[in-house]
Amino acid sequence: MADLHGHTAVVTGASSGIGLQFCHRLAERGCNLVMISNEADALQSAADNLSDRYGVTARSFCLDLTLPDVATQVEQYLEANAPDADIMINNAGIFSFQPLTEMTPGRTDCFIDLHVRAVTDLSRLMTLRWRQRGCRGWLLNMSSMSCWMPMPGLSMYAATKAYIRVLTRSLHYEMRDYGISVCVACPGGIATDLFGLPPKLQRLAVRIGALDTPEAFTRKALRRLFAGRRQYINGLLNRISIVAVGLTPTPLRMLVKHRLLDRGITR
Description:
This protein is of the alpha/beta class and 267 residues long. The protein has nine helices and seven strands; from the N terminus they run βαβαβαβαβαβααβαα. The protein has helices spanning 17-27, 40-54, 70-81, 105-133, 155-176, 199-207, 214-226, 236-246, 250-266, and strands spanning 8-12, 32-37, 58-62, 87-90, 137-142, 180-185, 231-232.
C-alpha cells in the first residue's frame, strides 16, 4: 500500500491534530480524502491546502459527530461524492480530566455520543458497505493507552476508549474472512494540544522519547493498518506501562486524586 492513488479515505476529526496528520500521510501517497470535522473554516482551509500540496481531491464535510444520525448523513454524502471510499479512520475525540460527579450530563453524553455511538455507527456503516460490495476495505479506530487506566479523573475518557478497543478487536475477527482489515490504535503520549501540555514541554518530551510526534505516530499506525494488524501501541515504554498501571496500588491512585484532581476542583 505504498501507492494509494485510486483510493479514498474518510477521516474524522480531520481539521487539526492527529486527524490532520493522518490526512497528510494519506495524501502524500496519492489518496483522495473526505475530511470530517465540526470546525468549518479550519476544515475547508486544511482541505484546500492538501489538494494544492499533493494534487489529490480533498473534500471537506462539516458535521457534528455527536448528532444522532451521523451514519445516515455520512452515507448520503459518500453516495453523492465518494461512493468508492475504501479507507475509514475514526479519529475524532475529546478529553477531560475531571471526576464523573463534576461533569454535566451534557458532557458525559458528548463522550458517549462521540466515542461510542459515532464510532460504532460509522464502523458498521463502512464495513457493511465493503462486505456487501465484495471489496477490500481498511478501518482504523483510535483508542488510547488510557483504556487500560482506571485512574481518578479519567473515568469517562478511559471507559469510552476501552469500548473502542474491545469493539474494534472483535470487529477485526468478524471482518477477516471478507478481506477487510480492522485495526485499533492505542497511542500513549502524542505531542498535540489535546491534553493541554504547553508546546515547550511537548518539544522536550519528544526529545527525550516520552512523547511521539503526530507525524511519526500516524505513519506507523497506517503501516500497521495496511499490514493487517489488529492493534497498534506505539513505543516499548507504552507497552511496558500497561503492566505497570495495572499493578498501581490504591494509595498511589489516591495520591493522584488528592494532588491533581482535588486541588483542581477546589481552585
